[in-house]
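Hi L., both proteins are below.
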Amino acid sequence: MLYDEFLVMPMREELTQVGFEEMRTPEEVDEILNNRTGTVLVVINSVCGCAAGMARPGVALALRNNVLPDHITTVFAGQDNEATIRVREYIVGEMPSSPSMALLQDGKLLWFLPRFEIEGRAAEQVAESVMDAFNEYCTGESVS
């Protein structure tokens, strides 16, 4: 079921306003995840309360870290269905989950934060998990 674009727009903008690039088609997903050099953070966005209260604020806080991925991207579950399905094909070995976050390099999964590790936690705790992944897998300060 697709959500009304008008209702979803503010939820999209929470991420795009802090620099996330949207992937709305499977082709965009493949282009970014296969052809970008370096690490790529993908946030699978959602309309649920844990996305609003924990995931989006948490990942925005994590962008204050000194070490960042090379690229930050997002898809919207329940809105960009084909793109979300394609992203999930890259998240090998993990169950579909939204919201969720994945860190990839060269199309390969390095780290994954599923919904059950987001819901019930404070945004600051989510940010800490994300920053730990940045510090472990990323090498630079450039987010493009």
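That was the first. Here is the second:
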Amino acid sequence: MAVSNIKAVFPYSAERVWNTVTNLKDWSWRSDLSRIETLSEKEFIEYTKDGFATKFTVTANEPLKRWEFDMENSNMYGHWKGVFYEKNGETTIDFTEDVTAKKLIMRPFVGGYLKKQQAEYIRDLESALKK
């Protein structure tokens, strides 16, 4: 199991940040994805540029405050938690991923992979919010 956390502050309202992060119809700002398939209100699949699929099941949805889901693909399973705080017109996001690799050989690399993915996500989100 690997746990990775990232926090960032954006000079935008929680509503703007929340709407960007949770909008499954407009994923175009994500540099790592080729598409998102919405299965239901609580389930969706993200496909990487290489076509690798990860299924997500929403477990908590408190608009402008908290979004959580379980995730699974052929290599891993885990949980993602996103918390949003707004103060003085700025929004702080606090995202935590708790992931277990299904293959023993991959377990030592999961933590580093998560950190890299989270940093890329924050860069993409910052670019999207500036538009």
